[in-house]
Write a structure and sequence with these properties.
With 229 residues, the chain is of the alpha/beta class. It has one domain: P-loop containing nucleotide triphosphate hydrolases (Rossmann fold). The radius of gyration is 17 Å and the shape is globular.
Length: 229
């Protein structure tokens, strides 16, 4: 579904991402894990086109993306939920979701969005800035999903959210993936959340992948050690 080959991202003379390669299968969830400052957000921003690549190739379903602008990558099938959610605080919930439908022929929010996120249906006329952190995260996910992505990319989705809501979001994402048929790429530091949703784990340190493991028979203690060193 998604393939990244030897990606390099630089800030001036400093290489933030070093020859990063990975694949993401159809309907698979891949968790990219690592401590703060290890390159998770930089990598995801490069995938969606918010940061330029120094070199490397990105393809989605065989279509080459590296030369495309961010909006064209979204049209090709990437959806992005940024770190910090970045919802439009002065727009209503409904208007926020509709902002993700710019390239869709229909402009009304599909009913399945409110089926999966009933709180957004209840608050559809409320301004986004008046929602709690967990509700804003659900809104950011809904905004990305109305574009019908083939791959949903989520950057630190648990940041600033209370544990009970984290569990709810994990359950909802698993249901959505099963019913809507997309793959997920998630950057995360909270191992308990990643264990709820991920099929495979990649550990990043100083811009390089240093460990990979499938969900089956995962050595969770080893993964946690990378996150706490």
């Amino acid at each position: 579904m998604l393939r990244a080959q030897r990606l390099n991202v630089a800030y001036g003379e400093s290489r933030a991402i070093r020859d990063a390669s990975f694949t993401l299968g159809e309907r698979e969830t891949l968790a990219i894990m690592g401590r703060n400052g290890m390159g998770k957000t930089t990598l995801l921003k490069a995938l969606i086109g918010m940061l330029p690549l120094a070199s490397g190739a990105i393809s989605l379903g065989g279509q080459q993306l590296a030369a495309l602008k961010s909006f064209a990558r979204v049209q090709a099938g990437l959806g992005f939920v940024p770190q910090g959610r970045m919802i439009f605080s002065q727009l209503t919930v409904e208007e926020n979701i509709q902002a993700g439908m710019e390239y869709r022929p229909e402009k009304s929010v599909p009913g399945w969005i409110y089926d999966f996120f009933p709180v957004l249906g209840e608050m559809r006329k409320r301004k986004g800035g008046n929602l709690s952190g967990g509700q804003q995260q659900q809104l950011a996910i809904a905004r990305a999903l109305v574009g019908e992505p083939k791959v949903l990319i989520l950057d630190e989705p648990t940041e600033g959210i209370q544990p009970s809501i984290i569990k709810e979001i994990a359950r909802t994402l698993n249901r959505l993936k099963a019913e809507r048929g997309f793959a997920m790429l998630v950057s995360e530091q909270v191992l308990s959340f990643a264990l709820e949703i991920a099929d495979r784990f990649l550990i990043i340190e100083r811009g390089e992948f240093v460990h990979e493991a499938p969900r089956v028979n995962l050595d969770a203690a080893r993964i946690q050690a990378f996150l706490t060193i």
